[in-house]
Design goal:
The complex is a heterodimer of chains A (150) and B (121). By secondary structure, chain A is mostly helical. Chain A has four helices and two strands. In chain A, 22% of the residues are buried. Chain B is mostly helical and 121 residues long. Helix content of chain B is 63%, strand content 3%. Chain B is built from six helices and two strands. In chain B, helix 4 packs across helix 5. The relative contact order of chain B is 0.06. At the A-B interface, helix 1, strand 1, helix 2, strand 2 and helix 3 of A face helix 2, helix 3, strand 1, helix 4 and strand 2 of B. Chain B: Keywords: Acetylation, Coiled coil, DNA-binding, Nucleotidyltransferase, Nucleus, Phosphoprotein, Transferase. Chain B: Pfam families: CBFD_NFYB_HMF.
């Protein structure tokens, strides 16, 4: 269960990375815009869930399945997502199968690394956050410098 | 095109499934479960919703940037997003959380007007 309201937010570092990858290089995304996109993404999840749940209920099923989510996308008029979603699901299913075969071997390796890596990735996210916060003041500085030159 | 997907070696599989989605599935499940009438979600549905959310973030950012005022200045701002929510049919469901900003001056003016109209009665 979600115990705190911020549990219903998606991680800012990941959202920011997705935005940056989608936009052309060098586009400056304001902090306010990033927060708004992140909130929009949470609302999107809820909206999609509610639509998908309607399809499951119509079919008298209690468990949401892949078909329900795809039907929800159509209903929400995000047909453009259907093809990439189907492709991703196929790759994901193959990956799941492959994982089972190699999991025994890999799990042993991972368990050793797990603790140290968890700490590392957390640090990385925090670093990213700091970097981004610094970006905006930088832009302001540039503007100031221009004024001085003039 | 499908060559790499059909015949991946073991290392490719793990790295591609990692690359496949970057948002945490557990967090998406938490948001989905916060909806009161959802009882259970199977793994594929969870994966698809997570992937769809990533596509949505890309799509929202791209459309807002391409139709926004910041294209010349190479920036994406809140008002570009609010504009997209209002103007694009598929993003209409976002208007509640992406309200257009108005100046306090304009808001006070409209308040005054409303009061005047009330006084007429």
């Amino acid at each position: 269960m979600a115990e705190r309201p911020e549990d219903l937010n998606l991680p800012n570092a990941v959202i920011t990375r997705i935005i940056k990858e989608a936009l052309p290089d060098g586009v400056n995304v304001s902090k306010e815009a990033r927060r708004a996109i992140s909130q929009a993404a949470s609302v999107f999840v809820l909206y999609a869930t509610s639509c998908a749940n309607n399809f499951a209920m119509k079919a008298k099923r209690k468990t949401l399945n892949a078909g329900d989510v795809l039907a929800a996308m159509e209903e929400m008029e995000f047909e453009r997502f259907l093809e990439p979603l189907r492709e991703a699901l196929e790759v994901y299913k193959k990956g799941q199968k492959g994982k089972k075969e190699v999991s025994e071997q890999k799990r042993k390796d991972k368990e050793k690394k797990a603790d140290s890596e968890n700490d590392k990735s957390r640090e990385d996210e925090e670093e990213e956050e700091e970097e981004r916060m610094e970006e905006e003041p930088e832009a302001e500085n540039e503007a100031e410098e221009e004024e001085v030159e003039n | 095109m499908n060559m790499s997907q059909n015949n991946p070696d073991k290392d490719d599989q793990t790295s591609s499934s990692k690359k496949n989605i970057s948002l945490p599935i557990s967090r998406v499940r938490l948001i989905m479960k916060s909806s009161p009438d959802v009882s259970s979600i199977n793994q594929d549905a969870l994966f698809l919703t997570t992937k769809a959310t990533e596509l949505f973030v890309q799509h929202l950012a791209m459309s807002s940037f391409n139709n926004g005022a910041g294209k010349e200045t190479n920036s994406l701002s809140y008002s570009d997003l609010a504009h997209t929510a209002e103007e694009t049919e598929t993003f209409h469901f976002l208007t509640d959380i992406l309200p257009k900003k108005i100046l306090a001056r304009d808001y006070l003016k409209s308040l005054e007007q409303m009061q005047e109209e009330d006084a007429d009665f």
